[in-house]
Amino acid sequence: MNAASTITAGIVVLTVITIESGGVFLLRVVGGRKPANALQTSFFRAGHAHAGVLVILGLVTLLLTSAADVADPWAWLGPLGVLIAAILMPAGFFLSVLGRDPQRPGRLVALVWAGAGVLALGLATTGVSLVVTGATA
What we know:
It is built from 4 helices and no strands. It is an all-alpha fold. The protein has one domain (about 40-135). Helix 1 (about 5-30) packs antiparallel against helix 2, helix 2 (about 40-65) packs antiparallel against helix 3 (about 75-95) and helix 3 (about 75-95) runs antiparallel to helix 4.
């Protein structure tokens, strides 16, 4: 791995600490120690799950493009899209249900959809760049 990929991976691994603290928050919600309605509880669960899975997926794409020696900018563009989605989607789940007793998600749920689009682009870029790199090797 090059220096930029190594630093990015290190930063991403450190962000798992924030996901862990989100898990503690979620345990408080589910345990009834933090008030939340059913919508909030389900969105908090979805946000936490998406954060964990997408961070791991972002690290995997970073490692794959690095191991395959994919050319720049494709080597970092695809993984960066996945990692940006790992921020956008959970943020949309959490921020769209803030408040005392929301009955439906707020406008910030658009971040979930934006993240889904960025995720698709990041994965498509990673997949195509891996196939092209493999085919030309």
